[in-house]
Amino acid sequence: MKIGTLDLGERPVMLAPMEDVTDASFRLIAKESGADMVYTEFVSADALIRNIAATTRKLEINPLERPVAIQIYGREADVMVEAAKIVEQARPDILDINFGCPVKKVAGKGAGAGLLRDVPKMLEITSAVVRAVNIPVTVKTRLGWDHDNRIIVDLAEQLQDCGIQALTVHGRTRSQMYTGAADWEMIARVKENPRFRIPLIGNGDICTRAQVIDAFELYGVDGVMVGRASIGAPWIFAELTGREPLLIARQFDLLRRQINESVERIDPMRGILHIRRHLAVTPLFKGIPNFRQRRIQLLQTPDPESLLKLIDQVQQEFYPDSL
Questions:
Q1: Catalytic residue among 24, 81, 87, 101
Q2: pLDDT tens readout for residues 10-21
Q3: In the annotation, is 101 catalytic?
Q4: Regions in the chain scoring below 70 on pLDDT
């Protein structure tokens, strides 16, 4: 699959952009584990042009994580153009536009998936950003605003005509948020449109290698994007891309690395707060009997040293063969 001149090979599997998840450390682990391309956390165009430090930090790219896409969101074409030019200076491989975020603080203000209710403005923004930069521009969006307005087949063609070089479709409407099952049949209908010619990336509910294969063979997508299944397990890309799954010992090592790098990148207190999202859902702790109190302890431990000791104890107690 090619996006512009960027060749991602056959059947690429990519890390989805996720706020407060796909920081530099997480992206690099995913890349090392097999992800063919990674995406940053989404970046607010308004905050970027105001030079908010927490936002500009999201543009920092480690050369080892390439190819990498930086994703931006906003609701006004002129602001998005200015932000796109700033992003271009960070030299990502791709600039992605977020028209899919369903959360109220984004969609409710007319950005992200909110623009599914204002397609002319969405197309205006897309065309303006494509004209403004010299790197490939892509879009990530959803099926439509709700079940009665699943407009993705026509919308995909319109976005293509704006000059984007690939499209990612999450197989849910904005109204679904993250509930129900992703509709891959609807994603396939985009690909079946003979007038749609750019690469199509499918997104939604991919958790296993078998589902990756089905996405390509049953639904005809050119690429697959994985989001929530990687939270707490960025090493999942080894399995999803057909490589040898990482041993438990290696998974524990990578979890410790995430903790240390989160603390180094931010500070001890906020670094631990950031990593708790991953600790809460990591498959390393799933299925362990009577683990509730231990999980609470892991999620309430306030300092890195104590947290790492607790993780060592969990590994020693429940995974002694991994030592």
A1: 101
A2: 999 999 999 999
A3: yes
A4: none
